[in-house]
Structures are given as C-alpha cells and as structure tokens.
Target: D-alanine aminotransferase
Amino acid sequence: PHVLTERGIFRYEQVTYPMEERGLQFGDGVYEVVRLYSGAYVWLQEHLDRLYRSAAAIRLSVPFAPEELSERLEQLRRMNDVREDAILYLQVTRGSFPRSHTFPTENRPNLYAYIQPMARKTDEIAHGVHATLTKDVRWEYCYIKSLNLLPNVLAKQEAAERGAFEAILHRDGIVTEGSSSNIFLVKDETVYTHPATERILNGIVRTRVKQFCGELGIPFIEEAFSVHDLARADELFLTSTTSAITPIVQVDDITIGDGRPGAVTKSLQAAYQKATQPAASN
Ligand code: PLP
Model:
C-alpha cells in the first residue's frame, strides 16, 4: 500500500517517524477517519473541513491547502486501487524537533494518510450492540479531533472487557457521547442527542442524522439526556464513520425498549443506506 505524506506519496515501508515526533511525545496533532464504500470516499469534504477546524483550534497548519489535499487523497485512492469497503486514516502533527513543550520556532508539520480495508459491521448494524456506562474524564475541548485518545482508549477497553461494543460517557450523569461515537436516544418518536458544544465531537454522521430526521419529519432535539433517561428510552443508537448507525439494545443491565433495534433507528439506517449508495451504481 501507499502512504501520502507532506513530501508526497511513498510505499508503506518507506514511511518512518523519528523518536522526537511531537505526535508521539505530546499527542500534539489532529486526525480524521473517512469511510470508503466500494472504493469511493464518503463525505470527504466534511471530514477535511473538520480537519482544518481541529488544526486551527490547536494553532497547527495543515501542510496542504484544502483543494490540494483532496486531490492528493484522490491520487492516493487511485494508486492503492481501492475498490472495497475501507477507511482512510489521516493525521497532522506539529513535527519532529528536540523535545520541548513549547511550539517549535519553525513551521514543519508532518502529515500521513493511508487507506486500509474495513468491512461494514453488518451484524452489529442489523442486530444492535451492548454498551457500558463510564465516567467522561476527558478535557473540555472534545470538539477538537486530537490525537490525545488515552481516556477514549481506556473507556473502550473497559467496555470490551465487559463484553460490550461501546462505552457511553457521562459527565455528572449527563450523557455526552461514546468513546468513539455520538449517542442518540429515542423517546416518543423524538430523537435526542447532546448539543454540539465543546464537550463532544460533532460527528459527520451525527450531522447527517440531523438532516435525515429533518427529511423524514422526525423531531430532532439537541438536548442532553441523563443516565436515568436510559431506563425509559424507547430506542438508543450510536453513530460514527466506522459504525454508521448502530442500534444499542443493552446498557450494562438495562435493556433498551424490547431489546431489539427500533423503528426510528431502522428508518434512519435506511436513509443512511440511500445517502451512501455510490452515485454511479450501475
Ligand atoms: N465522538 C468521538 C469521540 C469520536 O472519536 C468519533 C469518531 O470516531 C465520533 C464522535 C463520531 O464522529 P464521526 O461521525 O465523524 O465519525
């Protein structure tokens, strides 16, 4: 496979990083994950917009201008001859310099991006998943898609060890989001989710769900709900680039609704399917 870097496109084995890389030593960088279905990028522009916003928030410059970056990512896709379902991983870091907390005086950011196959999570999407509740111990700027993922890693690991697919994070009982997803509650045919404040990452799929709700006439309320509301929820689901719209049927020992994916979730899944069909599917 090929990798795009700030210096051009190289073979995977050719790309190595020095010890004193600020991404490694400080997590000083931002990233994106973009879906590809049947070899086509899904909502690439939205992801790139968010990448530049995240970078600006930490005063980091992305090595390429937006149009050039999308051209290069297209080139990367062609060179890898991607035809299947996959993801693109892209990160920008503040570069390699002798270790010091303060910014380097020179502007020499590093970028790399590569594509790896990833099948659709068909089983989870069809039947739903279990989740656990965990305290949200992250910093206050979760709207930045930064490389500092230790709290997310620990939460997801704890969930996995309890046999769950995702960790639902809460701050003082208020559900914020998942360790790598946004969380939505359905009650009386209305969808609720945490508002897009600095406390959550405003997911690209989250934004689409808001749009689908508008199109389908489903009330969409950006109002936080609490862990106590889970017991009274009709449906619960998560969204992310890798997991699309996935029903949550159990949270710790609380069964959601009748323990099966609900009608609102299914209609949103259908809208997602329709929106992500390759434009020229013939
Ligand atoms: N929230 C967090 C913390 C995430 O890491 C992610 C994605 O990985 C999301 C939400 C969902 O965002 P998106 O729909 O853009 O993938």
Notes: The two ends are 28 Å apart (CA to CA). The chain has seven helices and 15 strands.
